Amino acid sequence: MLLLLEIFPFITLTSFSQAEKTTTANNFPLNEKGEVVYTEIVKSDSTNYKELYVRAHVWFANTFNSAQNVVQLDDKDAGHIIGKGVFEFDETVMVVWVNFTIEIQTKDGKYKYTLSNFLYKGYRLEEITFDPSDIQKINLKILNIIDGLKKSMQTNTNNW
Fold first, then answer.
1. What region, left, alpha or beta, does residue 18 occupy, with left being phi > 0 and alpha being psi -120 to 50 degrees?
2. Phi, psi of 135, rounded to the nearest 5 degrees
3. What pLDDT score does 115 carry?
4. Range(s) of the domain holding residue 23
5. Which residue from 135, 101, 108 is spatially nearest to 25, judged by alpha carbons?
6. pLDDT by 10-residue block (mean), the chain, 160 residues
7. Distance between CA 70 and CA 84 in Å, rounded?
8. Looking at residue 159, what is its pLDDT?
């Protein structure tokens, strides 16, 4: 069912986040190296980087079973967190896990998230040809993760 992705003689351009990204026939956003990457700089007016950092930490704790096991780099002074996440993908025949890296960087008034290094059954997403319905399922899972992050980054942690 899964075939290694061959080099296609065509690539299309689609708009994703702040800049145009190249996509494969699988329609995942690719960076300049041809890797699947979801990234965006999000403005958060008048919120300092320390508060955004705390919100990112809260999101990690609420999103993953064990934030302590997920977070790989935690630099409060720089407002920088890197974690290793995983989500379940329900194939037609079986359930598999998709591993990924998430990086959040905070600055006064904005933050940047990057989801990358997606591994599916030991292969990078950009190396596999998927059924279109599977692409939609995987993309929906990733976009739900991003949506949860964005909502958490808007929630004031000092308002209780």
1. alpha
2. -60, -45
3. 96
4. 14-154
5. 135
6. 30 33 62 91 92 93 80 92 88 77 96 93 78 82 94 79
7. 5
8. 64
Q: How many helices (H) and strands (E) does the chain have?
A: 3, 11
28 belongs to a structural domain: yes
In this structure, are residues 5 and 35 in contact, taking their beta carbons and an 8 Å threshold?
no
Q: Is residue 75 part of a domain?
A: yes
Residue 45 placed within a domain: yes
Number of domains present in the structure of the chain: 1
Question: Residue 127 in contact with residue 158, Cβ under 8 Å?
Answer: no
pLDDT of residue 129: 76
Please report the DSSP string for 29-83 in residue order.
Answer: EE-TTS-B-EEEEEE-TT--HHHHHHHHHHHHHHHSS-HHHHEEEEETTTTEEEE
The domain that contains 137 carries what CATH number?
3.30.530.80
Q: Considering the domain boundaries, does residue 2 fall inside one?
A: no
CA distance 29 to 34: 9
H or E element, residue 145: helix 132-154
Question: Residue 28: its pLDDT value, please?
Answer: 81
